[in-house]
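Appendix B, Record 12. Input sequence as logged:
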Amino acid sequence: MKTKLFSISIFVATAVIVSFFPNIQNALAKPALSPSIIDPVDITQMENNGSLNNERPKIEVVFVLDTTGSMSGLIEAAKEKIWSIASTMASAQTAPEIKMGLVAYRDRGDAYVTRSVALSDDLDSMYAQLMDFQAAGGGDTPESVNQALFEAVNNMTWSQQSQTYKVIFLVGDAPAHMDYQDDVKYPQTINIAKQKDITINTIQAGQSSATRTNWQQLATLGNGKYFQVEQAGNAVAISTPYDKKMAELSAQLDATRLYYGNPEKKAKQAIKLASTRKLQKQASDEALARRATYNSSATGKINFLGEGELVDAVSNGEVDLSSIEKKELPESLQALTPLQQQAVIIKAKNERNRIHSEISQLIEQRSSYLKKEVASRGGEKDSFDAKIFGAIRAQASQKGMIYDDDSAKY
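Logged structural output:
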């Protein structure tokens, strides 16, 4: 009896697919014109943001972050706000390509001196590593600022393009150790940074006068700006009634991704998927709502998709599904017929469009809510967020990127 019912189910499913086969063929043959596959907003948004002519500006930012025990509040603020910072950078009138990296540092004798996360447009993977950093060690000053800055300038794969806005934000509450004989001192490192056209900004946590003097000199030498914030960073971390739903929808959106490629590419994709699962499990609803906002931007699309995402590639006509070897397809598609594979792609794309639309509405409502909250607090002009946005806005303009007055995202 079960066999008979199964056979009937297969017959009905096949009939449905065959009956809609002309529509499937047309949809996949003309992806750019089919509303069942392509969200009409996609192309318009890309055109408005200059992404069709391959002339998008680029931003590369590395945070050099003191992770000693006294920095616990600011580290937690960074975990909450990194997506808002990314969204703020993404809000330039021509949406830029963004890469982020991280150098965490302490001092000799601590559990580590430095730990680095490479510059990448895969912010999910960067964020998953940021979540592992906890404040510990320290207890004295100064810290290994020299080594951290040296690694940020010399060990990151910075762009060679002159129009890329390359910037370091050095964040800490203690000055640099200048008495290590085998250290490359920061003036020498800053000279190398200038040759690479890297701007160095400093953000001091707390009130130490020794740190203030050191941080001001670092910023002056690095053609950057110096800022001082409270020990905990006084970041704008406001919960909204929309965060939880946005976090849920973002997880649903992530579930529509299907990856293809050779074993090497699949291994890289597996790391990204593991990072996504980790942040979905461990990050706050507020942080996940900020991530959803970033991923919905023209800039954030690459973080959402990663490399070798099948639904997007087929829907946009970048790849012919029939040209992909079976072993390179997602496992969930390998046992299906070509028609069934096509049906899965169309279903995933339509589901993605639906979720995107719902998230977009919530983003607008959340943004309006946050603007009112921030205004009621006097604009939060001294916040960690405002300091970073002020530097980005002024410095990125020298590379042709223009930000509106209300570009800051929270």
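The two ends are 58 Å apart (CA to CA).
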